[in-house]
TrEMBL record:
It comes from the Bacteria. PANTHER family: PROTEIN-GLUTAMATE METHYLESTERASE/PROTEIN-GLUTAMINE GLUTAMINASE (PTHR42872), PROTEIN-GLUTAMATE METHYLESTERASE_PROTEIN-GLUTAMINE GLUTAMINASE (PTHR42872:SF6). It catalyses: [protein]-L-glutamate 5-O-methyl ester + H2O = L-glutamyl-[protein] + methanol + H(+). This is protein-glutamate methylesterase. Gene3D superfamilies: Methylesterase CheB, C-terminal domain. Keywords: Chemotaxis, Hydrolase. PROSITE patterns: CHEB. Its EC number is 3.1.1.61. Pfam families: CheB_methylest. One of its GO terms (biological process) is chemotaxis. The active site is at residues 17, 44, 138.
């Protein structure tokens, strides 16, 4: 079985929509404090939404890692969860985080696609993208760019997601490296980051690869 791993010092780019806050809370609670990589938690929002404050409070309450709202020009640090600020896109340029209101012609700000596309081009094979429960297709172009740049792509199992539309679109429009339920994601993240923490990491990554192939086939045949 061909298991895809990111190159050294990966960055995890995680996107979801309004139904995904509970998923982000679960990840914040169960990713261990010793996790070495930076993670970006992006719940896309319509322009001007104040929901970011609620997201930040939830993640701060449950996270074992440092949680940070990035400043423009700040450098990405390991073992940190980044939550974009209100009404700003977050763009990665190398290890530097850029906050901007451009592109303006998008319904969402922050947008999953904007983060993932910039992350794909900056980190290439070290980029790991994750699409969780959500509607519509913000994040799909970003996922495809991660694939084009040689990174690792992950989708939550549609039958495990509160809203399966975004994970289903990932299967329809790209070829996720791994598909798995939310409960198994902390172990998969540790495996991909080269961090031995969960005893079942090696079996979970194999199962997630098999599920990705099977789900992709099922979706195409419908």
């Amino acid at each position: 079985m061909n298991l895809k791993y990111p190159s050294s010092f990966p960055v995890f780019l995680i996107g979801t929509s309004g139904t995904g806050l509970r998923a982000l809370r679960f990840l914040a609670e169960h990713i261990p404090s010793s996790f070495p990589s930076p993670l970006f938690f992006l719940l896309h929002r319509v322009k001007g939404s104040e929901l970011q404050r609620s997201i930040l409070n939830v993640i701060n309450t449950y996270s074992q890692l440092e949680v940070c709202v990035p400043q423009d020009g700040q450098e990405v640090q390991p073992s940190t969860i980044y939550v974009p600020p209100v009404d700003e896109h977050l763009i990665l340029e190398g290890k530097t985080m850029i906050l901007t209101k451009e592109p303006a012609d998008t319904r969402w700000r922050p947008s999953i696609d904007t983060l993932l596309i910039s992350g794909a081009r900056s980190y290439r094979t070290a980029a790991v993208s994750v699409l969780l429960s959500g509607g519509l297709d913000d994040g799909i172009e970003g996922l495809r760019e991660i694939t084009r740049q040689g990174g690792v792509t992950i989708a939550q199992s549609p039958d495990d997601a509160y809203n399966p539309v975004l994970p289903l679109n990932a299967l329809l429009k790209d070829h996720p490296s791994y598909v798995l339920p939310l409960n198994d994601m902390p172990a998969l993240f540790c495996e991909l980051a080269g961090h031995n923490y969960f005893p079942d990491q090696s079996s979970i990554i194999q199962k997630a690869a098999l599920t990705a192939a099977r789900k992709r086939k099922e979706v195409q045949e419908k």
